[in-house]
Specification:
Length: 281
């Protein structure tokens, strides 16, 4: 793939995804795409790659979209979310964004997570890379952090394309006590995004095949209502449906606080539910 073709492909995919997600305005371009990014490896366990954001930065602005773009305007790798009053470091929490994310869908949930957890990271990656390749870098960064601190548990949240990333990561976590939350993710596959990924395998029914994970890893799937999800509702078959050894499959309600609960706001619902701050239907 030459450079001009790669840029053209990214532009077409951006327009497609934004039309599905009803994205307002021009999407954030993210990292510049170079030929050969698919499957490329990055060393993300280097401490010098870790950025840091104080959660109060988000409190200073009422513009959630600006806060989201600020969150996404970071280099690939783990971004530590700091809350000066929180010192509960027994659990390592990592949030993984989706394709073409503008970040705003994470702001409310991350603020509430930061009240409960002192070791909270947002994982930024290049979404033009294949999910299995991204998962390898993610788990490398996680194992590096686990060596520094005796955490009792690991909790992952992966949204949309990030849901594929954390599901591929499940098999690479060994016997670590882990809870993985997969949110509104096309786990069975999404051909327009994954067709260049030759490393991926599919079963006879055309669904993605994931490596098995150990019993210490509990994967919970949070599915949006197919007809309510702007990314999936025009697809004949719901790409969230797949047979995997989930600990639990939760179907989210069609509305949240009186408004449609679609692809992006599913993040707020799940993260807030996790910390015991539920929303009404």
């Amino acid at each position: 793939m030459n450079r001009s073709f790669g840029i053209m492909r990214f532009t077409l995919l951006s327009l497609l995804l934004c039309s599905l997600l009803s994205c307002p305005g021009t999407p954030s371009p993210g990292p510049q795409i170079q030929s050969g990014d698919r499957g490329a490896s990055q060393n993300l366990s280097d401490d010098r790659r870790i950025s840091q954001i104080n959660i109060q930065t988000f409190d200073e602005s009422k513009d959630i979209r600006s806060a989201g773009l600020y969150l996404m305007d970071n280099p690939a790798g783990p971004i530590k979310i700091v809350n000066g009053e929180q010192d509960n470091d027994s659990v390592l929490v990592v949030a993984v964004h989706g394709y073409l994310s503008e970040g705003y869908e994470w702001i409310t949930g991350i603020q509430n997570l930061a009240v409960h957890y002192g070791s909270l990271f947002f994982y930024r990656y290049d979404w033009d890379r294949c999910p299995d390749a991204v998962s390898s870098d993610l788990t490398r960064a996680i194992h590096s952090e686990l060596k520094k601190h005796p955490y009792n548990k690991l909790v992952l949240f992966g949204h949309s394309y990030g849901g594929l990333v954390v599901t591929f990561a499940a098999s690479q976590l060994g016997s670590v006590n882990t809870e993985i939350n997969v949110i509104a993710a096309p786990l069975s596959g999404f051909s327009s995004l994954l067709s260049p990924c030759e490393s991926l395998n599919y079963d006879v029914e055309g669904s993605l095949v994931y490596p098995p994970w150990k019993k210490s890893v509990k994967v919970i799937q949070h599915r949006t209502v197919h007809g309510q999800d702007g990314a999936f509702r025009d697809l004949e078959i719901d790409p969230q449906v797949i047979e995997l050894p989930f600990e639990q499959v939760q179907t989210l309600p069609p509305t949240m606080d009186g408004h449609r609960l679609g692809h992006n706001w599913a993040v707020t619902w799940v993260l807030d539910q996790h910390v015991g701050k539920p929303h009404r239907y």
